[in-house]
Amino acid sequence: MSLLAIFSFTLPWFKVDGEEITFLTFLREFLLGSGGPGTLPGWMDPNSTAGTLVLVTFLAAVLMILLGALFGLTGGRAGPGMGTLGVVLFALVFRYVYGPGYRELLSVGYALAFGSFAVGLLFGGGKRL
């Protein structure tokens, strides 16, 4: 299931202003963007009053998703749980930034990652980490 989550990184996770944004595109913009490393892309609303809170929770979610995929690939049951928690945190931050219309912004990559982590959590049999 973690392979499906990793595959979902190449699919569109968001639809913002008519543009589909993949998980990998977001990471590339965050790490190598025009504003320098560590700046949020413009579509993430970096000028909000709670920008620091949004940035910290968003980065925590991204880290949890990536670690969840890594742990899941190594056979650990905690990986899908961490990934599921990361995707939920990701959705909560998106909900906070974009308000009630955030569901229309989420795309197939998000759904595939959430589904694969949730199935891995429910049916995974890993005994390590």
From TrEMBL:
Keywords on record: Membrane, Transmembrane, Transmembrane helix
Membrane-spanning residues: 50-73, 80-99, 105-124
Name the record gives this protein: Uncharacterized protein
